[in-house]
Specification:
Elements lengths: L1 H9 L4 H8 L3 H15 L6 H17 L11
Helix pairs in contact: 1-2, 1-4, 2-3
């Protein structure tokens, strides 16, 4: 789920670019994002919640070596 959310944030909330980057169908992306909401208790459509989720992704990248999966060529 982290890779999905991180990619979604990185792509500026673009469903088309995120799905293409993850090589999944857009419906699959929507299902994954709903799962993120369920697991975190945050709503992606809510500006405050999205900011917190985005910050969490950025902090994770910073403190886990700073390499995102789309940057590492995976």
């Amino acid at each position: 789920m982290h890779e999905t959310l991180s990619r979604y944030v990185h792509e500026g909330k673009s469903v088309a670019r995120t799905a293409k980057g993850l090589d999944i169908h857009s419906n699959t992306l929507y299902q994954r994002l709903q799962r993120v909401e369920t697991l975190t208790g945050r709503k992606i459509a809510d500006a405050t919640d999205f900011t917190l989720l985005s910050l969490a992704c950025q902090l994770h990248a910073e403190y886990s070596g700073g390499v995102s999966s789309w940057d590492s060529g995976r």
